[in-house]
Amino acid sequence: MPQLKDFQIIKKLGDGAFSSVHQVKRISDGTIYALKKVRMGKLSEKEKQNAVNEIRILASINHPNVIGYKEAFFENKEGCLCIIMELADGGDLLQSIE
Description:
With about 100 residues, the chain is of the alpha+beta class. The protein has two helices and five strands. The chain has helices at about 45-60, 95, and strands at about 5-15, 20-25, 30-40, 70-75, 80-85. A five-stranded antiparallel sheet has the order 1-2-3-5-4, covered by helices on one side. It is globular and about 35 Å long.
């Protein structure tokens, strides 16, 4: 089971109301990913369920125009749900629009 300590945080990419996204490198093989850390402690039960549903949706989609889901795990020490995804190295949609 993956853990946060298996990844080296390179830089923060952005923040949301309940989450932050970081560029990370998996220590074992050097692969670069995006890590979304969802702070679960302050979320209502409905919001926690929405976070789990996001993982289910990500895992079910395989399309070249959608960021690929890799894996997810809970980091109990920080109270976060961690979602590992492909890195959109060209930036996000907002950056493209601007």
